[in-house]
Each structure stands twice: as C-alpha cells, then as structure tokens.
Design brief:
The complex is a heterodimer of chains A (267) and B (176).
Chain A (H helix, E strand, L loop, with lengths): L2 H6 L2 H7 L4 H13 L1 H19 L7 H11 L5 H76 L3 E8 L7 E7 L4 E5 L10 E9 L4 E8 L9 E5 L6 E8 L11 E6 L4
Helix pairs in contact in A: 2-4, 3-4
Chain B lengths: L2 H9 L3 H23 L2 H17 L11 H18 L1 H6 L8 H6 L10 H10 L2 H12 L4 H8 L3 H19 L2
Helix pairs in contact in B: 1-2, 2-3, 2-4, 3-4, 7-10, 8-10, 9-10
Classes of the chains: A alpha+beta (267), B mainly alpha (176).
Chain lengths: 267, 176
C-alpha cells in the first residue's frame, strides 16, 4: 500500500471532521495503528482544526464548566480540599504521638522487668549454692554417721566411759577405741564449749608409772555439731583423759583442768 | 499526560480527566456551537448540555470509531442543530445570520495568544471562497463527504483534495 498516496488523498482530513462512514473510520484507525506516519498526520490535522474552531469562540467558558460540574454533582475543589487535608494531618499527628507515648512506657516497663528478672536470677543462684552446700554437708554427715554405726557395731571396739573429775564432775565423755585401725572416736557431747583462747587436749595414759601421751587438741570443738571426733592412737593406752589447755596445746596435761578421765578395762 | 491515558481515565469516570479534556476542547466546541446557533446565551446553554451528555455517555466512546475530538465535535454539532430546529428556537430566531465561521474569526476580539490569533486571522483572510465553504460544511456543520459533494455540486474526490489543501495551508500557518 502506498502510504503517501493514502495520506495525500485527503481522507484523513475527512476522518478528523467526522465526515466518513463507520466502516471507513475503522479502516483509518487500523492503518493508524500500523503506520506511525499516518497517526502523525492525523494528530497534526486535529491540532490545526482544534485551533481553527477555537478561534470562533468569543467568550470565556470557565463558568460553563462550573455549571457542568454542579449538574454532574462533582465535588467543588479548594474549600473542601483544605477541610479534608486538615483532619487527616491531625489524625496522623495524634496517632503518632499516642504511639510514641505507649512505646516509651512499654520500653520503661521492659527495662524494669529485665532488672527484676536479673535480681531474681541472683537470688536463685544464691539459694542454689546454699542448697548445694547443704546437700554436701548432709552427705558428709551421712558418711560420718555410717562410719559411727559400723564402729559401734564392731565387737573389737572397746567402749571407755570418761567420768567427770574434781570441779568438772558434771562433765563426761566416751571413747570408742578401734585398736585394729589404731584410732579412737571421742564422743565429747558431755563437755561444755571451751572458753576463748582455750582448747581441749586428749591424752593417752600409762598408769604405772603415770605417763601421759598427747593425742592432739580438738581445735574445731565449738563448730562441730555432733561432737564426735576421730583421733589417731598408736599407743597401747591404759586410760584416756581430757584437759583444758591454752590454744595450741601443752606438752604435759594441766591437772587442775582435767575434765574427764576413764580407765581401759582389760579382758 | 498521554491523550489515550486521559481518555481511559475519563471513561473510568475520573473527574479530573474530564476537566482536563474540557479545557482542551471547550473553546472549539463553544465556537462550533455558536457558529450554528448564533446566540451567545443559547450557545452556552447547549454547551453545558453537551458536556453533561459526554460524561454520561463516556462508555459509548471507542477509539476505533474515531478521534475523541471528533466524537465530542459530533455531539456538539448535533446538539446545536437540534436546538435551531426546535420550535422554541424558530420562534425567536427567524433569520439566522448567514455569515461563515470566517466572519466570526475576523471580528473576534476575544482571541488570545493561545489560539494563535494572528496566524488564524491571517489564514482566514487569505482563504479562497471555495475553501471557506468546504471547511464550513465539513468541520462546522458536520456534513458527510457525500452531503458536501451534493451541497457544493462537486465530485467527492475534488472535495477531498480541496479540503486537504485548505487544511495543509492552515497547518503551515498555525503549527509552525
């Protein structure tokens, strides 16, 4: 098809005028879509005709648009737009501020909660370590108690009661002597706590001639709860005695402070 | 904005698009309507009806049927012609001024820079009588090519070429 001949035929001018039949209109439209030069030609014809026809308008027509919009029920612009924009702005602002305040309180609350939880954890940790210590102590006590039971049941163990002496007649103690293991268990339940700066000292005695041998001092008397002390004894003892001595112990027993004394019964 | 997009929006009942299209074509339509009814108040009245109708009939427009400008032009011309054929109009306006659009343009003091007053005035003053006639019938009166051929007593081919030459001259003056 000769595009140029088609354009110069004058059909496009009639197309813009609206002077063609419906069928011809559709043909021109189809060709316009296919050939950009035809579309361009139509646009230029239209622009020129718009200008020509507009030149015959003698009056301003803005008021007609107003009438049309009124008749069609369009929103009239300016005043309404302002009143629409303002509450929108306020709504966003108020919501924004409210959100900030809520957020701030939320943060404070969270920080507070965190502090509280951390302090709770510390308390729990302390309680746990206390409980662990108690369990440890209990285990230790249980082991000690078990040892004592075995000792008390053992036939080879001699039981020597130590009676209160002189001023300390109200006191007493007991010695369980495990000769085989070369040790004694001293039950000192009947002795008062030693005064400050003093300790109990345990003696093994030979009776003829009277020869005391120190088995050591009980330094943890007050702290010990069951007052049963395991002491090493390698001597062939004939009697046991307990004296009160200055801290650190003495080489020989101070007889004025002999609390208890008991003789080993043979046989 | 692309004209096609604007028209799509208008068809979707976009008020803003309608207003833009009004501003693009209202002067042309008022000019064409006035050219037919020759009364400013009646022209404005018809014009208002035309654009209300365009809004309500937006669904019926399709680019396949022709240019949007041409569609509006047709509605405007038909509304104006209906008006002068009405009984009420005939009573008050017995004798219509027989001037062509050319006379209106030449006596128009309201032409502003936008419509390229000088160019258009220069164009119409140079127009041959036969050019004036063909443009008047095809664009301002809405004659079909065969109606124009009959009215001017010349073959359709001659109408087409003459009209093309007239419009080409107009384009040279107002678009360059």
């Amino acid at each position: 098809m000769d595009i140029n001949a088609y354009i110069t035929s004058g059909i496009l001018e009639l197309y813009v005028a609206g002077a063609l039949s419906e069928k011809e209109n559709e043909e021109v439209y189809a060709l316009m879509q296919k050939h950009p030069e035809i579309l361009q030609e139509v646009l230029e014809i239209e622009a020129a005709v718009v200008k020509l026809t507009a030149s015959t308008s003698q009056r301003n027509n803005a008021h007609i648009l107003k009438q049309v919009k009124k008749e069609l029920g369009f929103k009239t612009n300016t005043t309404n737009v302002v009143s629409l924009v303002k509450p929108k702005y306020n709504w966003i602002t108020y919501t924004g501020w409210a959100a900030s305040v809520v957020l701030a309180f939320g943060l404070l609350w969270t920080v507070n909660q965190n502090k509280q939880l951390q302090s709770n954890i510390k308390v729990a940790e302390t309680q746990q370590s206390l409980l662990e210590t108690q369990i440890e102590n209990s285990k230790k006590s249980l082991a000690e108690a078990n040892t004592l039971i075995t000792v008390l049941r053992d036939d080879n163990i001699s039981r020597i009661p130590l009676a209160g002496q002189g001023n300390f007649v109200n006191t007493y103690a007991k010695v369980y002597w495990d000769k085989e293991q070369q040790r004694i268990f001293l039950d000192a339940q009947g002795l008062p706590n030693p005064p400050e700066g003093k300790v109990y000292q345990v003696w093994s005695l030979k009776l003829s001639p009277l020869t005391p041998t120190s088995l050591g001092t009980i330094d943890n008397f007050t702290a010990d709860t069951n007052k049963i002390f395991e002491i090493k004894n390698t001597n062939n003892s004939e009697a046991f005695g307990i004296t009160l001595e200055p801290a650190g112990g003495s080489a020989t027993p101070t007889m004025e402070y002999l609390y208890t004394l008991g003789v080993v019964t043979t046989g | 904005m692309e004209l096609d997009t604007l028209i799509e929006k208008f068809k979707a009942k976009d008020e803003k698009a309608f207003e833009t299209l009004y501003n693009m074509y209202s002067k042309s339509m008022l000019g064409v309507i006035y050219n037919i009814v020759r009364d400013h108040d009646i022209a404005e009245e018809v014009m208002q009806d035309v654009f209300v109708k365009i809004w309500h009939k937006s669904d019926s427009y399709s680019s396949k049927k022709g240019r949007f400008f041409t569609w509006v032009l047709n509605i405007a011309r038909n509304a104006a012609i209906d008006k002068i054929r009405s009984k009420a109009f005939k009573k008050t306006k017995q004798n219509l001024n027989s001037d062509f659009f050319v006379d209106i343009i030449e006596s128009n003091d309201n032409l502003d820079h936008k419509t390229d007053a000088i160019g258009v005035k220069k164009f119409v003053s140079k127009l041959k009588q036969k050019c004036k006639e063909v443009i008047e019938l095809l664009y301002f009166k809405g004659y079909t090519q065969s109606e124009a051929s009959e009215a001017l007593d010349m073959p359709i081919g001659t109408i087409k070429t003459r009209n093309r030459n007239c419009i080409k001259e107009l384009r040279n003056i107002v678009l360059n």
